[in-house]
Batch of 3 targets.
Target 1
Amino acid sequence: MNNTSDLVIELNWFARGICLDRRAAAIASDTPPEDIVATARRSLLNYWREDGIRDLVPARPEPPDEVVVRGADGRALYRRTIIDEKIERLFANM
């Protein structure tokens, strides 16, 4: 089994400034950066679903709208909001 890193995945309500979930030790120390980003995005999208017109809508009441990967010192190493995801999907479909 791999050693875990000091990275933490946080799921937040961006506008309210509230942390909903912190997943410490969820990332192995030898995980490539692109896999960390993919894991963080999947963590956020677990709370959202596509509706019939290819827009993201909440799959559960009051879902998180931001994911942050934090280093051991608390710095944000990666941050993505659901708005970022929606914009990326909009331009990908044009």
Target 2
Amino acid sequence: MSYLKKSYRPAECFIIYIATELGDNDANANSLLESYLKELKEKFIPLLNTTIKYKDNSEVIANNLVLLFCNSMCYCHIQKEKESHNHITLNLDIILNN
């Protein structure tokens, strides 16, 4: 019953993982997931627009951040905490500095 043990994994790991699995076969789950991700993207864009460096590409960067979020939430199921943090840090650096 290892799933009952205290874990570093945030609740979002399970929510995104389950939602993506359900979304493959359930139109309602897919719609809810798409709505959630759209809302997340819409929250990133104004934040990115406050920085001149990101303003011209805020929508592309926001899309990449949402993809990183989804990827990271699923990735944390198979990797240890340190590897998950390294994955997120490396990808944030790539997204925000290229």
Target 3
Amino acid sequence: MIYLTDMSALPDQIISIDDFIDGNHPNLDVAERIAIAVVAAITSDAHTVIGVNVNGLSGVSSSFFNLFFTIVFEACGRETTRDRVVVLSDSNAMSAIVQRSREAVLGDAA
């Protein structure tokens, strides 16, 4: 089962965390690089919804997603981040971590 962090938008384009992990575990550098890729995809098309696939990801704290959402939010704004960034996870626990970070960075529930 795939858990979406925002059920209002299905992604048009998928960016996979697997393409950014350099070692055994993702670090904050990975979060930054994924966020930069998401910002680039958002700014290249005014209507594309970006899905970030984190299936199989484990062992990351909310700091990882806090940084990710902060970079996207600062570059694209609150509304665009809410409306056009969806995180895809195969874990209910990971989805909960992502949702808490999303809410913390964007200021309220998505």
